[in-house]
Amino acid sequence: MASGPKGQTFEAEVERYPDETTEFQVYRLTDPSYTSTLPGPSSRAISRNSGTLLYASDRSGSVQGFRMDLKSGDTQQVTGRDELDPASLTLLSDNRSFCFFAGRVLYIAGLSNLRERAIYTVPEGWELTAGLNAAASGGHVLFAERRAGAATPSFRLRSVALTQGAAAQAAAHTVVEVPFEMADPIERPQHAQILYRERGKGLWLTSTDGARNVELKLAEGGIGPAFWSADGKTLLYLHFPADPKELNAIREYAPESQTDKLVAKTSQYASFAPNRDGSVFVGASRNRASPVILIMLRIVRRELTLCEHRASHPENVSPMFSPDAQRIYFQSDRHGKPALYALHVERLVERIEDEGQ
After folding, report:
1. Distance from the CA of 136 to the CA of which of 81, 160, 288, 312 falls in 20 to 30 A?
2. Rounded to whole angstroms, what are the CA distances from 130 to 145, 197, 216?
3. Residues 33-81: pLDDT tens digits?
4. Quick one: pLDDT at residue 124?
5. Cβ burial 11-27 (10 Å sphere, 16+ → b, else e)
């Protein structure tokens, strides 16, 4: 299908309804007659001032990137490339530009003028894997590649500088190469280290020069979403116990001391996210009898149900806070195709001021 033109705008189509269980007001931001999804877990979807949401949608004929004004609900198409990877959309730290992969090419584009330029092409013999992470410094992006058709599996973590095309391609370098599938790299704040996921297993931490690459000694069982604290001292992650009778839990790991501790057991969260200071969590329950969105205050470990999500795949609900912690966003296919939803939680969660102030 041909896509509509980049730059076209659409009026808000927000629908508000009271949740049947809690009567909290829920805002459906996109029409479920077409598919809309949030970027991948290592990408940044909301601007620092909590005013803009970057997401992917096929509303114009093919999957493209869109930005939504979170005050008005109006939307603008910001890409027009074939084979766009929806999970790769990520805002950069300047809040004025964003990156994305389309096919084998990595692009950077301005949000105001939508001018884009190619800065990197995946080399022949290699393929892109899941996850794109932009450094807080704004100087480079991280992603993983797999060697295509190799008899022996080979995956590598790549770092690409956000400079002009030929210079960026020349400056691209491999941080570390491993014999297992890696995905979702996330730079560790205030440390020269990068976290990444071994698909189907655990999490690894490598130095930015690749000299030290170690698997983290986390609790036994499955590992869900993981988030660094703002200062990078600890890692919050969702733990799925090997025994299905046990409750899924939020745990915290400290790399320097190699200690892992329980933060709180949950109502069987399938996905979760903390607010920016780690004082409140939002989770999506996978409990079939109660498929809901909840928030938990860390200090008292008390949960409050906000609304039902009723998603067919709770692990894809991907709830998250806005940077100021006054809104919660998530995705669900409860009304048809995957759509984006929002909740106002300013009466429940303390506001966090803009980190740039």
Report:
1. 81
2. 9, 10, 20
3. 999 999 998 999 999 999 999 999 999 999 999 999 999 999 999 999 9
4. 93
5. eeeeeeeebeeeebebb
Q: Average pLDDT of 170-199?
A: 93
Which among 149, 174, 199 is the end of a domain?
Answer: 174
Could you write out the DSSP letters of every residue in 144-194?
EEEETT-SS--EEEEEEESS-HHHHHHH-EEEEEESS-EEEEEEPTTSSEE
Element (H, E) at 206: strand 203-207
Structure tokens at 206: 């490598």
State the CATH number of the domain containing residue 267.
2.130.10.10
pLDDT at 2 (0 to 100): 45
Distance CA 223, CA 284 (A): 15
In the predicted model, is pLDDT for residue 170 greater than 70? Answer: no
List the structure tokens of 324: 């100021």
Domain assignment of residue 56, given as a range:
39-174
CA–CA separation, 296 and 302 (whole Å): 5
Q: HSE of 333 in the Cβ direction (CA atoms, 13 Å)?
A: 11
